[in-house]
Structure formats: structure tokens, C-alpha cells
Design goal:
This protein has 229 residues and is α/β, with parallel strands linked by helices. The protein contains eight helices and eight strands, in the order βαβαβαβαββαβαβαα.
């Protein structure tokens, strides 16, 4: 079976007790902590910066942190997230004047690199940089806000991206972000995804004071993934 990984997005967590929220969701079987970093410029919302990443590391979080940078220009902030403890740093090709250089910068800073594709952004940006990415992230909603519905055309795009990865022979994770829920995660995995960002589906489904609710929803996602051929 594929190495499926669940990456809860802290955008939907209770920020008044973020460390506890992250601890609980990781105890429930999640694998990666997903950061949605928005600048109110590239996307119409303002969220969190590297200080929050650093604070979680100081809190004791050792799981991989996946920093999805929805910021423009992106190069200035990459070293800050690397110093703050990010594991993956992914960004949008539209946010970089020199994509190859930005990907190299991520790796030079000691992190794993990735490109993020909005619903209408073509995968052709990958043609000359496949050897410089560790993760490809497909947005299955338009970036900027949580709680949106999954865009079905993402499934065909996932199949296309999976073929590109398989044909390359490279070890690249294929992540999907937006509208991922218990009732569609199996179909999304069947289309080729191996890493699943879920915010409101996990944090929104749980009573904030009861970590066992995270056990329930993460467990249901695992059960669906176990059915993938």
C-alpha cells in the first residue's frame, strides 16, 4: 500500500491553544503539520508567519512541518521558515520570478522543496525542475480561505501529476489541499495523491476539548485509505 500521510492544516485549529491542538492531532495518528501562510497580497487573507512555526518547535513538536507559502515575493521569507524549523517549504510558481532559483534556495536552506499549483495553473512549470522538487501540491480549491468544497477537475490533474512523477523515477510526494474529507479521500488517493491536507474536516469535526474526536476522524480517513487498490 502507498505511504499515505495525513497533514492537518492548523488554519482550522484553535489558535488560543495551538500547541495542545497540534499535540492532540498528532497523537491521533496524523503525520505532518500543515501551515497555510497567507500574506493578503498573493491571496486575499492574512494568517501566520515563521514565529508560529518556531513556537511549535519550541513547544516540542517534532513531526514534519509543511509550510505552504502563499506569499509574493517568496524568496525573502524562505530562509525565515527554514530557520524556524520547517521541513517542507512549498510555494506557487506565480509568486517567484525565478522558480529554479527559489527551489534551489529552499534546499540550500536545508529544507525539502515543493511547487504548488492552483486549480487553473498548468503542470508544465514542472517540465524543467522535476529534479529540484520533493513535493508537488495541487490545490483543489482556490487559495485564501478554509472550508471550501473540493473542485472535481483536480482528480484528472492528480492523475496527470502522478504519471509525471512515476515517469521521472524520482521520489516526490503528491499532496492535495482543499475540501479533503472522509467521504472523498479514497477517490483522491485513487487518483494518485499520497499526502492529504485537511483542515476543517479534522479540526472542525472535533469538539475542541476532546482529543478522542481527532482519533475518530483521522481513523475514518485511515480506514478509507486502506481500501485503495
Amino acid at each position: 500500500m502507498a505511504d499515505f500521510q495525513i497533514a492537518p492544516s492548523i488554519l482550522s485549529a484553535d489558535f488560543a491553544r495551538l500547541g495542545e491542538e497540534v499535540d492532540n492531532v498528532l497523537k491521533s495518528g496524523a503525520d505532518i503539520v500543515h501551515f497555510d501562510v497567507m500574506d493578503n497580497h498573493y491571496v486575499p487573507n492574512l494568517t501566520i508567519g515563521p514565529l508560529v512555526c518556531e513556537a511549535l518547535r519550541k513547544h516540542g513538536v517534532t513531526a514534519p512541518i509543511d509550510a505552504h507559502l502563499m506569499v509574493k515575493p517568496v524568496d525573502r521569507i524562505i530562509p525565515d521558515f527554514a530557520r524556524a524549523g520547517a521541513t517542507y517549504i512549498t510555494f506557487h510558481p506565480e509568486a517567484s520570478d525565478h522558480i529554479d532559483r527559489s527551489l534551489q534556495l529552499v534546499r540550500e536552506c536545508g529544507c525539502k522543496s515543493g511547487l504548488v499549483f492552483n486549480p487553473a495553473t498548468p503542470l508544465s512549470y514542472l517540465d524543467y525542475v522535476m529534479d529540484k522538487v520533493d513535493m508537488i501540491l495541487l490545490m483543489s480549491v482556490n487559495p485564501g480561505f478554509g472550508g471550501q468544497s473540493f473542485i472535481p477537475s483536480t482528480l484528472d490533474k492528480l492523475r496527470q501529476a502522478r504519471k509525471m512523477i512515476d515517469d521521472s523515477g524520482l521520489k516526490i510526494r503528491l499532496e492535495v489541499d482543499g475540501g479533503v474529507k472522509v467521504d472523498n479521500i479514497r477517490e483522491i488517493a485513487g487518483a494518485g495523491a499520497d499526502t492529504f491536507v485537511a483542515g476543517s474536516a479534522i479540526f472542525g469535526a472535533a469538539a475542541k476539548s476532546d482529543a478522542n474526536d481527532y482519533d475518530t476522524v483521522v481513523g475514518k480517513m485511515r480506514a478509507e485509505l486502506a481500501k485503495v487498490d
